[in-house]
Amino acid sequence: MSGRRPDVGNYDLLLVDIDGVVWLDGEPIEGAVEALNDLSSGIEIRFVTNNSTRHRRVIASLLRDVGLPWVGEGHVITSASTLADVAPSIGVSRCYVIGEEGLREELGERGIEVVEEGDVCVGMDRAFNYSKLTRALRNIMGGGLFLATNEDRTLPTPEGPIPGAGSMVSAISGACGREPDLVVGKPNPLMFLLAAQGAGASHPLVIGDRPETDILGALRAGMDSALVLTGVVKESEGVVPRPKYVLRSLMDLIR
Description:
The chain has helices spanning 32-40, 56-65, 79-86, 101-109, 130-141, 165-176, 190-199, 211-221, and strands spanning 13-16, 23-24, 27-28, 44-49, 76-78, 94-98, 113-114, 119-122, 146-148, 154-155, 162-163, 182-183, 204-208, 224-228, 245-247. The protein is an alpha/beta fold. The strands form 4 sheets. It has a 6-stranded parallel β-sheet, with helices on both faces. Strands 7-6-8-9-12 form a 5-stranded parallel β-sheet, sandwiched between helices. The protein has a two-stranded antiparallel ribbon with strand order 2-3. The chain starts with 12 loop residues before the first strand and ends in an 8-residue tail after the last strand.
């Protein structure tokens, strides 16, 4: 595993995770804002997050609020927006949603009707309960597709990890006895590939804090990766899959 600092000049796009890399539960990680502002003058940056709870425009606004004034909605790709982009192509027009406002809004903007009966779209839902689990089970057993934004078991916060969308997905999988038909979030390389295509980039660098999503997703996309030790993982020894680079924080990119 390389301990070298990546030469950002060798890349034409940075694909940056947010939770655990830029902030923890909305609180900026030390040095992250400074590093991103410095980098933004010389390279394209896109934020690629498995978090499905907020619409892209909300995330962009929050990133501006913490000190990144150049960030717009087009700089952000979420698992919710990706699922909404993909759903119509696989025949989804009506969807029962286990998730929060971000997922509902992204689906609605693509003309997908949010209903009680239909295919099932699952993201992180802090109001998840037995009633929602029952509705999802019946829809899937009745022939509905089982679609998920991501399978992250937890999310990092300053107080410690909290259950992520993967916890809801696992509960539904356990109830209906099968895995989702499609999971669009990392480590599926789809978000990375779409982001690179949208930016017209041919040599991106993926930066994230989760080996099992960010680093594995980069590997599957054929992209170089850097693991940042400010989120879920605090020690790089024995990490699998192996990133090309390890960063103590985003500040390592400009020092």
